[in-house]
UniProtKB/TrEMBL annotation:
<dbReference type="InterPro" id="IPR011990">
    <property type="entry name" value="TPR-like_helical_dom_sf"/>
</dbReference>
<keyword id="KW-0472">Membrane</keyword>
<keyword id="KW-0732">Signal</keyword>
<dbReference type="Pfam" id="PF07980">
    <property type="entry name" value="SusD_RagB"/>
</dbReference>
<dbReference type="GO" id="GO:0009279">
    <property type="term" value="C:cell outer membrane"/>
</dbReference>
<comment type="similarity">
    <text>Belongs to the SusD family.</text>
</comment>
<dbReference type="InterPro" id="IPR033985">
    <property type="entry name" value="SusD-like_N"/>
</dbReference>
<feature type="domain" description="SusD-like N-terminal">
    <location>
        <begin position="68"/>
        <end position="228"/>
    </location>
</feature>
<feature type="domain" description="RagB/SusD">
    <location>
        <begin position="400"/>
        <end position="572"/>
    </location>
</feature>
<dbReference type="Pfam" id="PF14322">
    <property type="entry name" value="SusD-like_3"/>
</dbReference>
<keyword id="KW-0998">Cell outer membrane</keyword>
<dbReference type="InterPro" id="IPR012944">
    <property type="entry name" value="SusD_RagB_dom"/>
</dbReference>
<protein>
    <submittedName>
        <fullName>Starch-binding associating with outer membrane</fullName>
    </submittedName>
</protein>
Amino acid sequence: MKRIYQYGFGAIMGLALSVVGCKSDKDFLTEVPPTFYTVDNAFSTSAQIDQAVVAIYSQLRDLWANPTEQGWIFVLRGNGTDMFDVASIRRGSSFNNYGNINPDHTTFYNVYHVWYEIIAKANLAIYSAELEHIAWSSPEEKANVLAQARFFRAFAYLNLGELFGGVPIVTEITTKPKYDFSRTTRVETYQFAIDELLAVENDLPPTTSEGGRLVRGAAQHMLARAYLAQGTQLAADGDASAAQSAFNQSVANADKVINGGTFSLMKSRFGSRQDEEQGNVYWDLFQEDNVNYQDGNTECIWALQIDYASYRAEDSKSKLPYSRTYGPVFRDGAKDHLTGTNEDVGGRGISQIIPTLYTRDEIYADKWGDDMRNSDIVFRRNFIGNVATSPYFGQPVPWEVIYNGSNDANTNKANQSLCYPVSCKIATDRYTGLADGENKSNLFRDDYFIRLPETILLRAEAKQRLGDKAGAATDINLLRERAQCGYMVTASDVDDRFNLILDERARELVYEESRWNTLLRMGGTIAVDRIREYAFWPEAEATLTFDYNLWPIPNTVIDTNKDVPLAQNEGWQNR
């Protein structure tokens, strides 16, 4: 059932407030109206509270899929990290020129604000669920709706902690301006998320019949992530004992997901296109009708819901504009050999963000290249010339020609930014809706918020931080065996800068993970070192002359909180 995403709290409040419009002009102008809607009386049924929770699902879908193509969301998804940069035609949207990045940058405010927006919606649902006049069909129904709302509140604080560090914890509805919020520590922010998730873990069902709804494994996965983040910060703070305890809890919660019997890696062909000779099991994971657990995909823990019928009828945001926003522009970068917007060039790409050379090539160099995730059906590298005058017409165009076909170095660099391999996660050979006027910009499949391989990689990292490098290698090999890699890692590959973990995350979770969260959570100088090394454009190395491991608290937030000073994060003061 994908209709859970089509309606939001705004519609419900609109219906409630419309009652006022039924009064006579005299009644309406009365100074104390007989009907005054407040938080306490705006909700009358449990279904309305569930719809307030649905509004959060809807907002998270739009935040992740970015159907309106907002630039700050591309940053949230990884622009400016080691994995993603911008094409030459979008240098103005770069997020690696630190001459322009400071605490006044609107991206930081937008990200900070959106997580508090979700917290506010969760707080409203939590408060309203306890109103005496709300009738629930059963205690279990109430507990489940509350569990979803509290999960979202925990999820928001976990994201804030990973990106911004310690932040104010707000659990009450705020009905008047407040200027005295106080920051918690980063460890305390993580602890709040942990406490929330522990409180609701068992009120979420192991599975659901409705695609997209939260399940117990999502809470356990987030506990593994939150404990790992907390342990990393505790270790940085010098509390080795508490850090070890947190890492052990991370492993224990990941174990519940990995070994609990509900979720498992898909290791054989499945789903809507399993009988086609061209595919493989990894490719199957990203085909229409294959993403949800309810579709038989046992490694899907939580997925956002996309529905083409709803898109056509009433929900214009029910789409993944990935071919458009993430797709390459061969028609500009290799126009003498490749052009058009057909499936054979990845659809109608406009390249809002690009995979860096690290993401597309370096992680598959040498012994790492023999990998199902690097196969042409998954990460397409063979493009057949389709320009009749090209010497490569009807033949694969060599990358040396695509990348370096000009005598001008600047042109070649631009071409490298516009042309790159096409992941099966962002394009398809079978676009839905062409008969209805769609133009190969959008995918109409569901998409993952949490997939089991990330849980496995979280456990691998926790094991490494516990000193169990052999255990970390074993976990990484669970994914490498599924990907039929020619090289299996050993404990000696598990390096102290977490390069192996980060490289494997890039291979497995490209276009899936929130890379900024991962890099900043790791602390130290891991984020800035990798940005300097792998950013596509040279501005990063030239302008990133200071170290940081958190994003700055937006200056707008600091200035508005006039009654209590909010300290700025290290590295960002006076910038």
